[in-house]
# Entry
Amino acid sequence: MAVTIEFPRRRPGRLTPPEEYAELRARPGLVRSALPGGCAVWLVTRHEDVRQVLTSPYVSSNPEREGFPTLGEVQTVPLHEQIPGWFVGYDPPEHGRFRKALIPEFTVRRIKAQRPKIQQVVDARVDALLAAGSPADLVREFALPVPSLVICSLLGVPYSDHEFFENHTRTLVTFTTTKEERQHAGGELIGYLERLVTIKQRFPGDDLVSKLLDRAELSVQEIVGVGLLLLIAGHETTANNIAIGTVMLLLNREWIGDPRAVEEILRFASVADLVSLRVAVEDVEIGGELIRAGEGIVPLVAAANHDVDVFDHADTFDPSRPARQHVAFGYGVHQCLGQHLVRAEVDIAFATLFDRVPTLDLAEPVEDLPFKYDGILFGVHALPVTW
Ligand code: HEM
# Structure
């Protein structure tokens, strides 16, 4: 009989995952818990078990299914009921149709070709950071705008509209905003994307929306939904990873300039710890526990990425380790579509930032930083830095 434990508190004042994860991994079977908001779920913490959940045909990603975990108000991105194209919530085979249409735009080769554009964005944001003057908030000046501008450029959104996009996506992913505010922001973004698609139908360019329209594998409404998903999935995740990664490099300066730090930061920080929510659609045994159809499952990727059976000295930041088998991008069919983009973006962001601002330092001790420890994503609300 599984014991029900309180959902582990997030990581106040520290970069490593909640201390309780190590204890949860060591327990036989899985752990019954309640998410913030009260929803009962199974917590999955071992690397092997997390991978099993994320590849099981008896487990669904569809939030419409009975028993799908919810995080109360926190989770509700206003999806205007049902937006076609929000494929992270689709199961195979429907899900595969979207992946097939999008994969060509996110290959290593295609992303490599985007590097000059990413470099331009990063250069402009380092200029803005320097212009803001020391001390500055690295989240506001750099970590948040970089991924937003990169996605805008990928989608074909004109530069002049980037602030509109940034403001509305921020409203969507900020948990302190009201449901009405989030609904309004979602409506504005969808309206904008609909107009963008109409313009690209008439005046195609060298951008993702134009290419999707040209290939005609997805409907116009689906392309709007895909655009919204890319905006939301790729913004705060990457921003938190850049901010937390900067902290890690400032605390471990010997690794500044080593590209291997990119993968180790992804593993160590695992910012998307609570993103891959699932529900069992048939009875299934995972980690020695019988999960009944209709029960919610939470694979905690930060717990899996600190599993000492897979990563030696898992709580030590060591970019020289082989970190590739981490599950920070999830695993299985829903594994992050944007992962090669993230690697390019983060690599360019750190190389440029530390090259141009070599005296960069934290303006406050780590334990005083305003950590986000109660939301879906791990990160910091602000990162005061000096140089
Ligand atoms: C550090 C940054 C990022 C992290 C840690 C991250 C993490 C994840 C994770 C864990 C999933 C799996 C969700 C699941 O299993 O249900 C996922 C899916 C996804 N990510 Fe990312 N992500 C990041 C950045 C991005 C970027 C930059 C983009 C695109 C521009 C992106 C687009 C997507 C999409 C479209 C999916 C859904 C894939 C599918 O369902 O097939 N992500 N991401």
The chain has 13 helices and 13 strands. The first strand starts at residue 4 and ends at 6. The pocket of protoporphyrin IX containing FE is lined by residues 61, 87-88, 99, 151, 229-230, 233-234, 237-238, 241, 271-272, 275-276, 328-330, 334, 336-338, 341-342 (CB under 6 Å).
